[in-house]
Amino acid sequence: MQFSIRALAPGQAKTGCLVLAAHAGGALAPAARLADRAAQGALRRVLAQGDLAAKAGSTLLLQRVAGLAAERVLLVSLGERGEYDVGAFREALRGVAGALKGIGARQVTLYPAEFAVGGRGLPWAVRNAVLGVRDAFYRFEQLKTQKKPPAPALEALTLAIAGAPVTLQAQAALKEAVATADGTDLARTLGNLPANLCTPSYLADEAKKLGRQFRLEVRVLERRDMERLGMGALLSVTAGSRQPPKLIVLRYAGAAKSRKPLVLVGKGITFDTGGISLKPAGEMDEMKFDMSGAASVLGALRALAGMRAPVNVTGIIPACENMPGGAATRPGDIVTTLSGQTVEILNTDAEGRLILCDALAYAARFDPDAVVDIATLTGACVIALGHVASGLFANDQRLADALRAAGEDAWDRVWQMPLWEDYQEQLRSNFADMANIGGRPAGSVTAACFLARFTRKLRWAHLDVAGTAWRSGRDKGSTGRPVPLLVRFALHRARPRT
Ligand code: BES
Ligand code: MN
Ligand code: ZN
What's the number of domains the chain is made of? Predict the structure, then answer.
């Protein structure tokens, strides 16, 4: 889908479909008011008849409104004026995208300012409009050979601005949004691919492909490299698998060499059976999504490199499978991590923290400004926060605040959880420096506390995306979260006021 941005009077928009908005009760948004004037009150008359439901996201399609150059007008409700907020904005956009999917318009014109939420400017509306539409039009059909539903007709979306020139900020917002959508799509597709196709080697190849496309430096460490380095924890997780493990490192340099990089570390378990501590059969297929953290790192790097963001970002992806088998790690086994600390593996299903602890220790070698890891780490986080917010843990409050703000801005929200020392005692082991599980209470916190033992010298945050990286049920599929948050966060660090 092509996106463009231009100044354009609504009445003159020669387009397949002109999208205009109104609040419940018929109050027209600014561009809709201009169009209504050009149409000599036709829109107001339609609204007065009560055909547009009040609920945000309700739509009404009109054909050939006299006085307007557009072939169709799609009216969308923003809901009650006094209640308009980001939630209603999202509903409205979802309604628009849903309606556009069902009509034959190839070219659509939409006024992002029409949807602006108080306190958030035009660049915000541009970014979120693009991301919302791209999200709704995402399809994953590469593995279906039959009965593919026909693709929607929409080819080009013009973001129009009425009565003012297009600003540089609006243009930059469009570029950022399209790159972010490309990165989010990549993360979704990698997440949706099954584990027999999306193996650690596949992720490594995908990283190399990104490297060629976007001039990233990509290095892949093999099993022998991990052995030489002493990554005993990562190696213990891959022990039962036939698939070779990979530690993928990608470096994007968009800023001066002297700027320390932001390091993103993504959990890349391409399938999590639980290992010898085998998971129950129900919904185990969803453990193909256990590489969503890795996918979000690739997606964020693609987005940032694609928009040539002025930042230095390094991605580190420990990738392997967690399988049972004769060579698999047993409960009770003790391993030595890259940091030198020893871990008693009481449950082989708590594998994410094992691959991450070695990857985080490795991250220190890049002299990072900050390290953020992203992982589908615990079922307990889903119990705590559901599918709305990702769990945020940090050993630096300014870093936590910046991530929270970026999440708000991108509407890819996080909620901070405690990382207090008081929880550390749950990881006590009789036989090693620590155990890899802390019991049922506060499961997402003790998982983060485990990671904290490997990041004491770093400014570090951890995002537990177990509840947000994919959806279950009828709409099963990857969401691409938290790519939008990571991109916003990285950009905020580059230019703190956009
Ligand atoms: N990948 C899972 C976490 C997970 C489970 C995410 C369900 C989303 C849905 C992780 O590797 C895991 O198995 N964690 C265990 C830890 C436990 C053994 C301490 C869990 O959450 O049950
Ligand atoms: Mn597991
Ligand atoms: Zn896992």
Answer: 2
Over the stretch 273-288, which tens digit does the pLDDT of each residue have? 999 999 999 999 999 9
CA–CA gap between residue 173 and residue 400 (Å, rounded) = 24
Is there a single domain that holds both residue 102 and residue 33?
Answer: yes
**CB distance 290 to ligand 1 below 6 Å:** yes
Residue 272 near ligand 1, beta carbon < 6 Å:
yes
pTM of the model: 0.97
- Return the pLDDT at 103: 96
Residue 443: CB within 6 Å of ligand 1? yes
> Can you read off the two tokens belonging to residue 434?
């620590």
Residues 421 and 350 in one domain: yes
The ligand placed nearest to the CA atom of residue 437 is 1
Of 167, 196, 211, the one marking the end of a domain is 167
In a domain, 17, yes or no: yes
Say yes or no: CB of residue 26 within 6 Å of ligand 1: no
**HEC letters along 263-318:** EEEECEEEEECCCCCCCCCCCHHHHHHHHHHHHHHHHHHHHHHHCCCCCEEEEEEE
For residue 100, what is the domain's CATH number? 3.40.220.10
Our measurement of the distance from residue 442's CA atom to the centroid of its chain's CA atoms, rounded to an integer in Å, reads: 25
Minimum-distance ligand 1 atom for the alpha carbon of 378? 21
Question: What is the mean predicted confidence (pLDDT) over 356-369?
Answer: 98
pLDDT of residue 264: 99
Structure tokens at 374: 């992203």
The preferred substitution site among 378, 445, 450 for testing ligand 1, maximizing ligand atoms within 8 Å of CB, is 378
**In terms of domains, do 477 and 348 share one?**
yes
CA distance 133 to 124: 14
DSSP state of 143: T
Q: Examine the pLDDT at 496 and tell me if it is beyond 70.
A: no
Question: Which atom of ligand 1 has the smallest separation from the CA of 381?
Answer: 21
268 and 367 assigned to the same domain: yes
Range of the domain at 104: 2-167
- Say whether both 107 and 154 belong to one domain: yes
| Crossing angle of the two packed helices 122-137 and 86-101, in degrees rounded to 10 | 40
Q: How confident is the model at residue 151 (pLDDT cuts 50, 70, 90)?
A: confident
Q: Which residues are catalytic?
A: 279, 353
Position 174 in a domain:
no
